[in-house]
Specification:
The complex is a heterodimer of chains A (about 80) and B (about 230). Chain A has about 80 residues and is an alpha+beta fold. Chain A has helices spanning about 15-25, 50-65, and strands spanning about 1-10, 40-45, 70-80. Chain A has one domain: Phosphoribosylformylglycinamidine synthase subunit PurS (Mth169, Chain: A). Chain A is elongated, with a radius of gyration of 16 Å. By secondary structure, chain B is α/β, with parallel strands linked by helices. In chain B, strands 2-1-3-4-11-10-9-6-7 form a 9-stranded mixed β-sheet, sandwiched between helices. In chain B, strands 5-8 form a two-stranded antiparallel sheet. The chains are: A alpha+beta (about 80), B alpha/beta (about 230).
């Protein structure tokens, strides 16, 4: 089972990298782009007994290491 | 005698500097403790040095905060052993949750390496008691991710409980946007826990602790620790 974990900055947390990307897109002529936010995608394989166990495990991983919940939100999907 | 331990992570690069500063000021040898160890030797204080532990992978300080030695550092900190985190060490302290908030990419997106001024706002902590309240001190910063962030409730609590140890200011002590090198909220450069025994700061006191380095403003961080340990063991 594979987990795709998406980590994004919380609303209200400034994202200077997102802003830089926005400016670069603008300078390339992409008009009307706004609110660019940069995040992370983490992909991993799991050896879990079932989907519920996998969910619980990934949840723990996010809480303990993969996301810093002071500044980041996380979500994930499991694909077999 | 003061028993100091410096934790060394793969990618720490200020560990020897802070060891030299600690040893010079306190007159006793500091332990260097590798991240893979599981126990810090009996210590009067623990220092988490600057650098780029684990290559800043995932988030600055995130991997270091989960390394084997940190379980003991966190346990000892909670039991009252004073801990100072400098630069990457501050990032590690935040990732462990011993101090609140997070350090994000500098607002300018640039690595900032220069001397700045900070005002000491809490002169009662273990590591700041040799400063005067409001005293302006010159100190080097060198970081890419020193932009202090916390939610408004946390910031207000830091202010109301006097937990801001250092704030970026100009040489006259005025807290201005121009004096803020990285976009930190409310110009916060360093904070303390409510006991004054866990302090994290982005600036590098060890880089300005003796005359050949260009100044001695940072020396009092180490002198403070020496005074505090001496008082505690007297």
């Amino acid at each position: 089972m594979k987990a795709l974990i998406k980590i994004t900055l919380k609303n209200g947390v400034l994202d200077p990298q997102g802003k830089a990307i926005e400016h670069a897109l603008d300078s390339l002529g992409f008009d009307g782009v706004s609110d660019v936010r940069q995040g992370k995608l983490i992909e991993l394989d799991l050896n879990a007994a079932n989907e519920a166990a996998a969910r619980e495990e990934v949840e723990q991983m996010c809480q303990k290491l993969l996301a810093n919940t002071v500044i980041e939100n996380y979500s994930f999907e499991l694909v077999s | 005698m003061i028993r100091a331990s410096v934790i060394v992570f793969p990618g720490s690069n200020c560990d020897r500097d802070v060891k030299v500063a600690t040893e010079t000021v306190t007159g006793t040898k500091a332990n260097m403790v590798w991240h893979g160890e599981t126990e810090v030797p009996p210590s009067d204080l623990i220092i988490l040095p600057g650098g780029f532990s684990f290559g800043d992978y995932l988030r600055c300080g995130a991997m270091a905060a989960k390394s084997p030695i940190m379980r003991d550092v966190v346990a000892k900190a909670k039991a009252g052993t004073p801990v100072l985190g400098i630069c990457n060490g501050f990032q590690v302290l935040l990732e462990t949750g011993l101090l609140p908030g997070a350090l994000m990419r500098n607002a300018s997106l640039l690595f900032v390496c220069k001397d700045v001024h900070v005002a000491c706002e809490n002169e009662t902590t273990f590591f700041t008691r040799c400063y005067r309240k409001g005293e302006v001190t010159r100190i080097p910063v060198a970081h890419h991710d020193g932009n202090y962030f916390a939610d408004d409730d946390t910031l207000n609590r830091l202010e109301s409980e006097n937990l801001v140890a250092f704030r970026y200011c100009n040489s006259d002590g005025e807290v201005t946007d121009a004096a803020n090198p990285n976009g930190s909220q409310r110009n916060i450069a360093g904070i303390t826990d409510p006991t004054g025994r866990i302090v994290g700061m982005m600036p590098h006191p060890e880089r300005l602790f003796e005359k050949p380095l260009g100044g001695t403003d940072g020396r009092r961080i180490f002198e403070s620790a020496l005074v505090a340990v001496t008082e505690a063991t007297a």
